[in-house]
Structure formats: C-alpha cells, structure tokens
Design a protein that fits this description.
The chain is an alpha/beta fold. It folds into 2 domains: 3-65 and 307-421, Aspartate Aminotransferase, domain 1; 70-305, Aspartate Aminotransferase, domain 2 (3-Layer(aba) Sandwich). 40% of the residues lie in helices and 13% in strands. The two termini are 37 Å apart.
Amino acid sequence: MNDKDRALRRRAEEVIPNGMYGHQSALLLPENYPQFFARAKGAHLWDADGNKYLDYMCAYGPNLLGYGHEAIDAAYIAQLKLGDTMTGPSPVMVDLAEQFVGQITHASWAMFCKNGTDANSMAMVIARHATGRRKILIATGAYHGAAPWCTPVKNGTLPEDRAHQIFYTYNDEASLKAAVAEAGDDLAGIFATPFKHDTMAPQALLNPAYAAAARALCDEKDALLIVDDVRGGFRLSRDSSWSLAGVQPDLSSWGKVIANGHPISALLGNERARFAASMIYATGSFWFSAAAMAAGVVTLREIRDTDYLEHSITLGEQLRAGLANAARRHDVDFNQSGPVQMPLFLFGGDTDFRRGYFWCAEMLKRGIYMHPWHNMFICAAMTETDIAATIDAADASFAELKLHEAGLSEPFQMAFLRMATEH
C-alpha cells in the first residue's frame, strides 16, 4: 500500500541524516504515517502512493486558506516571472510592509525574513539593543524556534547559548512577577505566545489578567513585550493575537500563514523599537525575495476581506462537539483543548501516548491526517462535509481503540523522543 513511500525512505536514508530531519520527520509519528507527499489542494494531501487525506496539520500551520489558493498562487507566479531573488528588493516589499502596518494595531514598521526562528531571533536582539540589557523572560515549555538559544533539542548547543534567559509559568502572574524581580535592572524583554500551545500537554487559553500584567511590567521596567504570533497569528484574530485581551505588544513575530504557505516571515514593531531595529544587522540571501511578498499581499487582503476566521471557528465548534459526543458513546476519556480552530487532542491517563498513537493511526486508515501530541489547525478550505467525515472516522476509531487498548504498549517513538530531548 505504501511501496513508493518506503522506497523513498530507503533512498533518503542514504543521502539525508536519519532519512529526514526537523519537525516534518515522520520518525516520531505512528508507523503507517507517510513521510512523502506528492501534492496538496484545498484541505487535502496525497502521499507518494496516491492515498488522499484530509489534513488537520495544515503543513504544521502555513495552510490557512487552502493549499493551492488560486489568487495567492497567481500573484506568486506573476511576481516570479518579473523577478524574485534580485540584487535589491522589489517594490512589492513596500506594499507588503504598508499593508501589515495598516492592519496590525501596534505596528509602525515591518521587517521580513524566512522563518519564525528568524523573526524571534531578531526580536530578542532588538529588545536587547533597545534597552541595553540582557535578560529575556520565556515561558517554560514554549516553542520559539530552532536556533541554539531556543531549540527544544539541545544536542550541539552550549549553556552559554541560553545565558541570560529566565523562565516563568505561562498565565501565572506571580511566576511572571518573580521572574521580573530576578531579572532586576537587566530586563530586556518578555516573550509570550498567543496562548499556551506547548506540545504533549493540554493547551490553555490566554488569561487576560496575565497579559495585562506582562504589559504593565514591561512598561514599569522599560522593557519590550514580544508576542510570538508565528503559530497563532491570524488564526485567532485579524490583529495581533493579544489584541483580543486588549493588550498591544512592542514587537510581534509572524510566519507560517502570512503568505498562505509561501516562504516568508515577519517582525513587526512599534515606534519605540524602530531605532533599535534600524541599528541591528539582520539579513539573508532570500529574505528579500519578491514572489512570496506578492503572495503575502494577496493573503493579507483575503484575511481582511473574507470570513475565513469565522468559518474556521464555526467548523472547529462543530468538530469539538461531534468528537465529544463520539467519545462519550464509546466511554473514551478524550480531552480537547485550545481554541477550536487550533485543537489538541489527548487521551486521559495516556502518559506514554499509546492510545493517541493508536487512534491517530486508525484515523489515518480512514483518510484523516491528525497528530498524536501536537496542536492541529482548521483551514478555511475545509467544509461541513469534511467535519462530518472526520466525526464518522473518529467514531469508528474510538470503537477500535476500545477493542484493542488493553493490549497496547508504549510506542517506540517515545523512547526516541526522550533520547533527543533529554540531552
């Protein structure tokens, strides 16, 4: 059934470390999950063997409006024909910056890069230069990228890479205040995500009191508040995510969805951070490439002018209710957390994820691509028919789980993951 994928894996093992690397390696997923995909359209993926899946991972976030969005891709292709990576930037860079500044309340300027890691790293450097201080506060367990200062896998990094970082508990005002006190007069900035979206643990929505406290503490200490909107940006709001709590950051980092999957990320900032941003050195060979910027202009227009967000929330609410009903029918302890449009599914008492791995494998057999411990995404190309098919698949998969759960054991992938993250 997966002959082509297995053959590709064997070839990849010869020329790519581990056969694949990073967050898109299938080594940590159930055994029957494909590694390679031949194409994508709308809300669906087709693997190398031609199997079709309704994709709830959305490329780990970038697919907001649907794979192969015609207007966005047409803008990308048109700019590609005019010029993409050139000796200097295209005028479309100014267009995109103007559109961002006009749409995001706190922003008065924009810088563009390629990955969320790039944007967050720039934010950290700008905060330190703006304040002349060193300490950066980060919520324990939060993901901000794959650079040595923030990677969850510490192999090859040094303790010095994380010097001057202080950790606090997300949504906990007392913990945040204690971390600020520990930083003393050396506080440069506070990093925060739109909500608590750590892997392998229930998600938690933003506590507005914590958000307000973070803003007040930064104001009191003359430090910069940085909201990492790389994963949650434009999935919760058409503005910066913390605008929902009435809080505006000094800096916000963006990526994934801002060109609907075309390669570009951004750092936005207010006037206070403008001079520091102008004084750091940040660049890359492909950071000024124009085609993705053209795609970004159209994506922002679609975000502004369509009901993509309301549609995604409606579908997410239908999915949450339907899955809860199916789980109850089969007496399965099934936990759903996070915003309905960015759900995470975990099983009660499933500390080694044996139930999650089995259930996701069953869902895949039924054409539904889900993840056993990472949050997922609703994209605007999904339909009520897709949600109904997902609930039907879940009902059958819960039934299979009840039949087999007594014989399940810890997935071997968990031992590999522990080995990678404990060093």
